Amino acid sequence: MARVGFIGLGKMGGRVASRLLDAGHIVTGYNRTQAKAQWLLDVGMQWATSPRQVTEQSEVILSMVTHTAALQEICHGEDGILAGLQPGKVYIDMSTISVDVSRALAQQVAAKGAHMLDAPISGNIVHVTEGTCSLIVGGERAIFELVRPLLQDITSKINYVGGNGQALLMKIAINLSLPVQFLGFCEGILLAEKNGIPRATAIETWRNSALASPATSHRAPFVLHKPEEVWFDVAMMQKDLLLALEMGRQLNIPLPSTAITNEMLTSARGMGLAEKDFAILFEVLGRMAGLKNG
Ligand SMILES: NC(=O)c1ccc[n+]([C@@H]2O[C@H](COP(=O)([O-])OP(=O)(O)OC[C@H]3O[C@@H](n4cnc5c(N)ncnc54)[C@H](OP(=O)(O)O)[C@@H]3O)[C@@H](O)[C@H]2O)c1
User: Fold this and answer.
1) How far is CA 42 from CA 28, 37, 38, 39, in A?
2) pLDDT at residue 184 in the model
3) Is ligand 1 within 6 A of the CB of residue 175?
4) What is the pLDDT of residue 213?
5) What pLDDT is recorded for position 18?
6) In testing the pocket of ligand 1, which one of 38, 39, 65 has its CB within 8 Å of the most ligand atoms?
7) Which of 16, 111, 144, 185 is a good FRET partner for 44, with 20 to 30 A between their CA atoms?
8) Number of domains the chain is built from
9) Distance CA 160, CA 152 (A)
């Protein structure tokens, strides 16, 4: 049992914090919008008024926020995480953000005598709730070993991949396949549907096929019924693809399927669908194919 701090209690972060509470840790949390964290306060999470206060009150501090700019916001300034760090503390960021920014932050954390790990999650909100998400860890190995028991209270699927930033790099490399695979699925279902096979039958047949991947199978039902809670919206998905495309540009690695999928996400935004789950790609392609009930 450790004194754990958590900053960024959104869809993912809130569920991770909930698992830590369930495991018996004392969790002090902060979220920009306090109301979204009420359900955690109701089950025993303690509240702090700033990322700095969370950091001052905790031995291990975790964060999970939207994007690079959000991370800069919670880390810097007089109320930020850096201002509250003391020697020996461990800061673990689970957000999917820029590798370069994360590495620069790790150096600032080290200058305070503290330690930073990047530990992005692969998996959706259901995986986090069930404890089956995959955690990818980068940073000093000895520090990872120190916090491994805590991370195991989040999931048993943990891969340590190297120094600071390497986990983010791996996560971005993995995540590009998520919408790319999904776009391929949409293309196939539309072909079947326009040839007279009912959409539900086509989806069920696809899910039973040798091509069905767990990630796309999880999301496939959203093509029939839009989810009550958006799991991962178009804007957020595009954020990950842009991180991948920039990495590809820097390393001279062409990412053709990523680039095309990224254009389809831009189309979705152009249609006013930025806040929909990215499964809306089916509707975008359906509209392009002239489907009335895309
Ligand atoms: N959703 C998924 O399936 C999934 C899967 C794997 C990884 N991820 C990654 O996990 C991270 C969080 O995603 P999510 O789905 O949990 O998103 P989310 O529900 O939108 O939560 C985002 C969190 O970031 C905070 N935030 C955003 N901008 C901020 C700012 N400028 N200053 C301070 N806090 C800020 C939000 O605070 P407010 O509540 O005040 O807005 C909220 O706590 C992202 O990096 C995402 O790529 C998501």
Assistant:
1) 13, 9, 6, 5
2) 97
3) no
4) 93
5) 98
6) 65
7) 144
8) 2
9) 13
- Confidence (pLDDT) at 111: 98
Please provide the size of the chain in residues.
Answer: 294
Q: How far is the CA of 189 from the centre of ligand 1 (A)?
A: 31
Amino acid letter, residue 70: A
Q: What is the structure's pLDDT at 226?
A: 86
Could you please report the per-residue DSSP string of 159-205?
EEEESTTHHHHHHHHHHTHHHHHHHHHHHHHHHHHHTT--HHHHHHH
Query: With a 6 A CB cut-off, is 66 part of the ligand 1 pocket?
Result: yes
Containing domain of residue 30, as a range?
Answer: 3-171
CA-based nearest residue to 131, from 231, 20, 27: 20
Residue 87 and residue 112 in one domain = yes
- Per-residue b/e over 123-136, b at no fewer than 16 CB within 10 Å? bbbebbeeeebbbb
Mapped onto helix, strand or coil, the DSSP state of residue 294 is coil
CB of 70 closer than 6 angstroms to any ligand 1 atom: yes
Q: What's residue 1's pLDDT?
A: 63
Give the residues across from 160 on adjacent strands: 137
pLDDT of residue 235: 97
Work out which ligand 1 atom sits closest to the CA atom of 7: 43
If we measure between CA atoms, which residue out of 16, 125, 97 comes closest to residue 5?
16
**Which of 171, 198, 216 finishes a domain?**
171
Q: Is the CB of 35 under 6 A from ligand 1?
A: no
User: Which residues of the chain, if any, have pLDDT below 70?
Assistant: 1, 293-294
Predicted confidence at residue 2, as pLDDT, reads 77
- Residue 202 maps to which CATH number? 1.10.1040.10
Q: What is the pLDDT of residue 293?
A: 61
Point out the ligand 1 atom lying closest to the alpha carbon of residue 14: 16
Q: Is there an atom of ligand 1 within 6 Å of 32 CB? A: yes
Residues near 139 by beta carbon (within 8 Å), at least 6 away in sequence: 106, 115, 116, 117, 118, 163, 164, 167
In terms of domains, do 50 and 193 share one? no
